[in-house]
Amino acid sequence: MNIKEYLRPDSLQQANELLSENGAVIIGGGAFMHLGDLEIEKAIDLQNLGLHYVEENNEFIEIGAMTTLRELEMNSIINKSFSGILSKAAASIMGVQVRNIATIGGSIYGKYGFSDLLTALLALNAQVELYNAGLMSLESYLESSMDKDIILKVRISKGVSKAYFECFKKVSADFSVLNTAAAIVKGKLRICVGARPARVRLAKGAMSFLNIIDSTNTAAEMAGILASEEIQFGSDIRASAEYRKELCRTLVKRCVLEVLQ
Ligand SMILES: Cc1cc2nc3c(=O)[nH]c(=O)nc-3n(C[C@H](O)[C@H](O)[C@H](O)COP(=O)(O)OP(=O)(O)OC[C@H]3O[C@@H](n4cnc5c(N)ncnc54)[C@H](O)[C@@H]3O)c2cc1C
Q1: Is the domain defined by 54-260 classed in CATH 3.30.390.50?
Q2: Ligand 1: residues within 6 Å at CB?
Q3: What pTM does this model have?
Q4: Which of 138, 145, 205, 218 sits CB 3.0–4.6 Å from 230 for a disulfide?
């Protein structure tokens, strides 16, 4: 990565104005960007804008975009909320050195197919707030193709009664072969499958089926089968599509059992 001009704005308005200029990009932790052979005209560092925080009120937990994955792993509010799945998902990512610099904002903006964090966040029905586009569900954000914007924070409702995240990696410092998460949000079950290896998806068929069944074991078994049938899988150097499909059955069943028990 080669940066021609490095800028640290003191206000969001200034950051937004700079971002509208040709060749300007936001830098989060820079962990993923620096892997590429990028030529960056203007790098806008958000460090001075107070976006590094975890806050809790009666309804929500809010996480500033510059909060690192290590903070998600270690923060006491995040540890005790949402059955700890954000901390678990963050802790599964690479080593501490990477987690110390990679941010939640960069993880969301990248919309990476391999992401462990997106799978946990989507199961929790997280919302994302952007400077220009405002507040929207993570689900809508992932499906959108937006103009350049600044992610300000992630907001998660405290209406999550139970959640579980599971990922399967061949070695700990590798991308997941598959990851899954389930959560009960305001009484409704949500199931997500990521690292397919494409971007995370909600298993909507399995979710709607499960919302009308009450035997835990049958429900979990059926959820695994339905999710593995409705989700599309691909092959890459880590695993074949067929292998991922089988894995999906098992991991989804495990997640659903955990949240329904
Ligand atoms: C070697 C390596 C292995 C990894 N393995 C995994 C893994 O197994 N699982 C996993 O889930 N993740 C993994 N990650 C990804 C990591 O979790 C982060 O998602 C990634 O590093 C991006 O975060 P960042 O803060 O470094 O973003 P950056 O690299 O700084 O930026 C990434 C993109 O987001 C944009 N951006 C950053 N912040 C904002 C913002 N606030 N608003 C708007 N745009 C923004 C940047 O312009 C850029 O396009 C890995 C990363 C690395 C470096």
Answers
A1: yes
A2: 25-33, 35, 46, 65, 69, 93-94, 98, 102-103, 105-107, 109-110, 114-117, 150-151, 175
A3: 0.96
A4: 205
